[in-house]
Amino acid sequence: MPVSHAPKQNHLLAALPVAEFDRLADHLELVAMPLGKVLYESGGQLQHVYFPTTAIVSLLYVLENGASAEIAIVGNEGILGISIFMGGETTPSRAVVQSAGYGYRLGAQYLRNEFNRAGPVLHLLLRYTQALITQMAQTAVCNRHHSVEQQLCRWLLLSLDRLPTTTLTMTQELISNMLGVRREGVTEAAGHLQRAGLIHYSRGRIDVLDRPGLEHAVCECYAVVKRESDRLLADIGPGDKSHMLGASES
Amino acid sequence: MPVSHAPKQNHLLAALPVAEFDRLADHLELVAMPLGKVLYESGGQLQHVYFPTTAIVSLLYVLENGASAEIAIVGNEGILGISIFMGGETTPSRAVVQSAGYGYRLGAQYLRNEFNRAGPVLHLLLRYTQALITQMAQTAVCNRHHSVEQQLCRWLLLSLDRLPTTTLTMTQELISNMLGVRREGVTEAAGHLQRAGLIHYSRGRIDVLDRPGLEHAVCECYAVVKRESDRLLADIGPGDKSHMLGASES
DNA sequence: CTGGCTATGTTCGATAGCGCACGCTGGACA
DNA sequence: TGTCCAGCGTGCGCTATCGAACATAGCCAG
Questions:
Q1: In whole angstroms, what is the distance from residue A150 CA to residue A145 CA?
Q2: How far does the CA of residue A13 sit from the closest CA of chain B (Å)?
Q3: Selection from A114, A85, A59, A76 nearest residue A236 by Cα
Q4: How many CB atoms lie within 10 A of CB B239?
Q5: CA-only gyration radius of chain A, Å
Q6: Which residues contact residue B72 at a Cβ distance below 8 angstroms, ignoring those fewer than 6 apart?
Q7: Residue B202 β-bridge partners
Q8: DSSP 3-state assignment of B124?
Q9: Residue B65 CB lies within 7 Å of the nucleic strand C
Q10: By the 8 A CB rule, do B221 and B138 touch?
């Protein structure tokens, strides 16, 4: 594997003060996150938190009849397993790797110990959680009011923001599971975007050709989430948001 | 008014240990929460947190075109203004009183001070926040996959759980705004429930006649949220040690 | 080169919810 | 007692999405 790995590829870890980072560093464990890997299951006991670096993970809620919907996307800007420090130990959600890559994991107890110091780690994690809540809430509204095509744009942009390239490895079938719609609905929406020259796709590979065009086609939900995440996490250190929408906001 | 008011009608306040409660009690201020009152607006600076006692408040996300959707309901089991302690100061949501009543408010700084002690108040609030996250996420899935009638049942039950009676004062028009659907859709669903003998309604007043029947008609989302809230907040109470986060974890 | 699998394209009827328009009614209020 | 109107009922056409079935096309293994 020619790629180099470093915990600080994760923005939260990168934002930690030296003392806090050093206390955790020895316990961070690089783990591969292959496509489809389930980091935790609905209701299961969480043993670790995960800091993705190059992977992207979806938080899914699965209904009894098997239908599902993605409620949030977590990449190198975030952490998985917030219920470990929020106090619940488990959540009713499922975390599935949506884009293969790597990340670091940390034993639950190490994170709890650090969290209980009530220092920078606590405040950083709570701010991130606040951003995550915004993403979930906006997803709820988007599910209610916006079209499949708009939601596809939102999903593409949210994923793109968490990748170093403009290529997503993702079949339409998988996307449909994330969005909680039919595969055919994704085919139709993606076909429309392709005819408009915004993307090109072929057999599980999607290239974004015209990001500004996508940002024009997306519903407001993307910008709301993006703006709120930036606001909440702007002052946390070396996070790269050069490609960001609305960078001159506020 | 003949009704007596006490802060401990709010479950979170009631769950505080004596020392913590006493520190806050002098700063708690009884406030009326009339129907339609906006406790905070999207993006506005929050000056207080609110602990409802008899009122019920809806958290709404409002889109640019005026469409809206409720993402959570908060009553005497909870608190409004979590972004004050989560660190964001504001949120993109709007809080509207859905059922008139009373509550106590507390200056943001008093809550922050208490929160920063990193004691029972912090852990109690975080557990509640975790329950709130579950409610939001389940709402997102419900918006995607379930019918208006199922969602109406969920909404009725969630409201009922936060009221001392089985009567809701609420027009179908208002409910439609909460659920993010048309008024006619609510009329149709409510008519169906009434013909089934589960509820009776008339001009802004809804009586629940058969709660078990409603629980049978509702989608799973209600039970998921309820179970998770009970689990997260079951062991709260004076003198309990749930604030020793994972202290004796195996 | 060929079979077989996976990903995508397409069609068709069914349905839920939308947007709109209009009608009815009970109760508040003059 | 009469008026008004908020709250509710209902009908109509429309669209997005669903559910299911089937057709094509790229790609890999043998």
A1: 10
A2: 18
A3: A76
A4: 7
A5: 18
A6: A137, B58, B59, B132, B135, B136, B139
A7: B205
A8: helix
A9: no
A10: yes
Q: Read off the pLDDT of residues A90-144 as tens digits, 9 standing for 90 and up.
A: 999 999 999 999 999 999 999 999 999 999 999 999 999 999 999 999 999 999 9
- Per-position DSSP letters for B215-227, written without gaps between them: HHHS-HHHHHHHH
Tokens standing for A235?
A: 């002052």
For residues A215 and A196, what is the distance between their CA atoms, to the nearest angstrom?
13
Q: What is the pLDDT of residues A14-27, one digit of tens each?
A: 999 999 999 999 99
3-state secondary structure of A171: coil
Task: Provide the b/e sequence for B157-189 (b: ≥16 CB within 10 Å).
Answer: bbbbbbbeeeebebebebbbbbbbbeeebbeeb
Q: How far is CA A61 from CA A44, A93, A120, A194, B142, in A?
A: 13, 5, 31, 29, 10
Residue A73, amino acid: I
A32: left (phi over 0), alpha (psi -120 to 50) or beta: beta
Per CB-CB distance under 8 Å, the chain B contacts of A63 are 141, 145, 220
Say yes or no for a CB contact (<8 Å) between A127 and B242: no
